[in-house]
Description:
Blueprint: H1 8-15, E1 20-24, E2 27-30, H2 31-47, E3 55-59, H3 64-75, E4 79-83, H4 89-99, E5 101-106, H5 111-118, E6 125-128, E7 136-137, H6 138-143, E8 159-164, E9 174-178, H7 179-192, E10 200-203, H8 210-223, E11 226-229, H9 235-244, E12 249-252, H10 254-262, E13 276-279, H11 286-293, E14 299-304, E15 311-315, E16 329-330, E17 335-339, E18 352-357, E19 364-365, H12 369-375, E20 381-389, E21 395-400, E22 405-407, E23 410-412, H13 414-422, E24 427-437, E25 441-450, H14 458-466, E26 477-480, H15 494-499
Domain AMP-binding enzyme C-terminal: 416-491
Protein name: Fatty-acyl-CoA synthase
Domain AMP-dependent synthetase/ligase: 11-366
Amino acid sequence: MNLGIGSWPARRAKVRPDDVCIVFEGRERTYREFDQRVTRLANAFAGAGVSKGDRVAYAGFNHPALLETFFAAGLIGAVCVLINPRLRKPEIDYILRDCGATVVVFGEDQRGNAEELAAELEIRQWLSVDGGGPGALFEDFLTGGSGEPVQIDVDLEALALIMYTSGTTGRPKGAMLTHNNLFYQYVNALIGQDLRQDEIHLAAAPLFHIAGLNMMTLPTFTLGGRIIIHRTFKAAAVLAEMEQSRVTSSFLVPAMLDALSSDPAFPAADLSTVRGFMVGGSPLPERTIRTWQDKKVAIMQGFGMTETGPGVCMLEPRDGLAKAGSAGRAHFFTENQVVDLDGKPVPPGVPGEVIVQGPNVMAGYWNKPEETAKALDGAWYHSGDIAVVDEDGYMYIKDRIKDMYISGGENVYPAEVENTLLSVPGVQEAAVIGVPDDKWGETGRAFVVLAPDTHVTSEAMREELKQRLATYKVPRDIVLVDELPRNATGKIQKHALRANA
């Protein structure tokens, strides 16, 4: 019997086959049509020699083919590997070699890399979603597959998905998620969010990232809602889609919310059908929450990571302002603690490392037993994130352990300083690092990007910080820059800032 994620299209098609499942660039597909395509693709994979446990990679921006590949791989017990299409050739090369992919599906943005890598790697089948490049056309390959139902038993503890972490401190690691991990992630999401069977979900955040895929998009699928897919996020197009298609939900990151609210069409936009946005990726400033509450749009903030599928905790809309800056409380089937260096829980208000336990926590890192043992020490996943929990049990993420620095014997968490800087009018982005100091050991240096047409001096920002933070937390230097260095996933590369400090 197959209770894994690959069986879900057929299960959903049995209930409401004629309901619209996917909308992409003006084309609609029903749940019946989507299920038929997944079945054909799964049979085509099997016909190409893909077996249980084999890895099927997808490197491309948002497209129905991504979801079809994900479900089809799961239907035959293969493992889907989703790859960020913004990565360069050496990064793609490393991931494909590391996971041992047998099939690679690629979008037009990876066509050049695919052509070069096809001559260097022993990949059984290359499939082009948009045409061109090595191998066959994805659509031709899919339609050539049999439409007969797939009869393969898939264990819930078998691997379903490998997602590579961004690798800000070294080579990316492949987080292994089982069918059971994904099932409980979706249950957590459905319990914690106001998703319904009539959902019209806009998937504009990257589906090759764990949160874009798993927080709302696939939970909407399990309910039988409608999923509108945009290849990439473009504020004007997303805002227009929300209004025209009567969108009810979307997963976004804070920068996307700010881009939408800065669009000239925002003040007049009718967003009355939007029930809520799930927001993650970085802390959400109070000003952003208020902007969207004024628009009568509920904001659900979350905290998580690839290794937990991604749910760790969530802040409900009703607590958005009262607990502004908090990541919320644990998901229904997830437990978390904040512990000291000895692994003992710390009292409220005391910083410690976030550790996570639950059926949504990964099985480990692909091909990395030592790093797996370190991360999953004592049956808990050790996140490397520093947080405090208040008296009510709400978690506040302070920083990454590796980013913390010590000034005059006091621990300084850059994220706290960065969040305070973001509340200063005119500040668009901020990153803080620790730099050597003869007197204090280390002190802070902030790198700030100002919003367009604003003029705020470094000294004015320092004076503002002095009113809100302890003196030892205030950066000695504030450097104005045009942009912050980022990796392919959009995360700020603090090691690059340190190298040039």
